[in-house]
Amino acid sequence: MVLAQKSETVEMRVRAIADLTQLSDAELFPTVARGLRYILANALNLWRQASFTAKAGHKQGAIVLTGLAEEEAAKFHVLLDAIRCPRGTRFSHHLRRH
Q: Could you point out which of 18, 59, 66, 81 has its C-alpha 20 to 30 Å from the C-alpha of 98?
């Protein structure tokens, strides 16, 4: 399974999830699917780096990287909720605020 190509450049923007409320269903689903792949690839990379760092004896660095991996993985669930919740619900209003 290929999650993201190494040469692929991905623009990450703060609070970009609010933009999802502006997309039609035809644009939303492929956009979220692409985002899920990027998030998963990034979370796995952070987790692997945490594991490598721990094995090298750098406990503090491993703890920090594990925390970042967990935060990245949480974004995956936020995007799933963006698809799962009907439009016009409190969740979509919450997305627009951020």
A: 66
